[in-house]
Amino acid sequence: MRKLSLLVVVMMAFFMIVGCSSGSDESASDDAAEKTMENLVVGYAQIGAESEWRTANTASIKETAEELGVDLKFSDAQQKQENQIAAIRSYIAEDVDVIGFSPVVETGWETVLQEAKDAGIPVIMVDRRADVPRELYATYLGSDFVEEGRKAGNEMNTLLPEGGKIVELVGTVGSAPANDRYSGFRETMADNIEIIDSQSGDFTRAQGKEVMEAFLKNYGDEIVGLYAHNDDMAIGAIQAIEEFGLQPGVDIKIVSIDAVRGAFEAMIDGKLNVTVECNPLLGPQFYDLALRAVNGEELPEWVPSEESVYYPDKAEELLPERQY
Ligand code: GYE
Predict the structure, then answer these.
(1) Contact 233, 291 (CB under 8 A)
(2) Number of domains present in the structure of the chain
(3) Within-domain flag for 116
(4) Do 131 and 237 belong together in one domain?
């Protein structure tokens, strides 16, 4: 009798262990199951709110998350790399499924990206690129900034067939778009055009205005052209040019990049000559790539976004269709 009850106890214990382990097998296979948008947790380390472009980009990231039912943790680094690094670290600590970020500058990301990799969290670079080894990120989604610079250079050549002296408002120092728009422009710029000064306006209207004021103070009406790395700096500069008593778009030809609504309005007013498009509506492509990365798919090194160039003659017609 005692033997029998011992056997029963042993058998019960056996079945309990098997039962438990098969239960944990199930949850293990749950973990390995394909993620969907509805159970995807994303940490997104945004740069800041420096321009109209960025505002549209943030809206696209947030609105698309809502539409898809993605759980989004979002942070704004106020244009500071240390804040972005801290945000990425907090997403690693929270064990999110995937991290998206727009590196404010190109260098200085290896350590934190290695931490994400060690934690098994894929990282997608959005809009701006960092200069890091390929194994530290899943993919880069963004524009061809060098090509944008080349297009801007060609536009300046057309606007100034006689050549002349121009000034340049550079974006955030050390950022991928500033570096690439700087070099792309110089690839196509005609020999009769001379860049007499080039300073950063940090991609903001306020600094674009301030730097243009200094340019005008130093060179006055010698300046026949302005190349601005984004529309916001061009819009700030337009104000400075008007306050100086010159006509923007006429006395000083202006080429900028982004194609935000403010640029279309300036073109309608005849104050901006050309804007080269840089598409900020990256939300849908970002979540698609994020989900694929989490589900273990190998992604291409770079997923480029499509863009165009816009002129004053179509600005009025196109403005109502612009989403940013
Ligand atoms: O052109 C500028 C913004 O990284 C492409 O950042 C982006 C740039 C954009 O502040 O307006």
Answers:
(1) no
(2) 2
(3) yes
(4) no
Ligand 1 in reach of 52 Cβ (< 6 A): no
Are 79 and 153 found together in one domain? no
DSSP 3-state assignment of 313?
A: helix
DSSP 3-state assignment of 195?
A: strand
Ligand 1 atom having least distance to the Cα of 280:
5
Of 238, 224, 204, 236, nearest to 156 (Cα)? Answer: 224
Residue 108 Cα to ligand 1 midpoint, Å, equals: 19
Gap from CA of 279 to ligand 1 centroid (Å):
9
CA–CA separation, 278 and 269 (whole Å): 21
Q: 221: closest CA among 256, 245, 188?
A: 245
Q: Which residues are CB-contacts of 40 (< 8 A; sequence separation ≥ 6)?
A: 70, 71, 97, 98, 287, 290, 291, 294
H or E stretch at 290: helix 283-294
Global confidence as pTM: 0.88
- Give the angle 226-56-141 at the CA atoms, nearest 5°: 90
Is 179 contained in some domain? yes
Give residue-wise pLDDT tens across range 232-290.
999 999 999 999 999 999 999 999 999 999 999 999 999 999 999 999 999 999 999 99
**Alpha-carbon gap, residue 17 to 128, rounded angstroms:** 52
The answer to whether 318 touches 273, Cβ cutoff 8 Å, is no
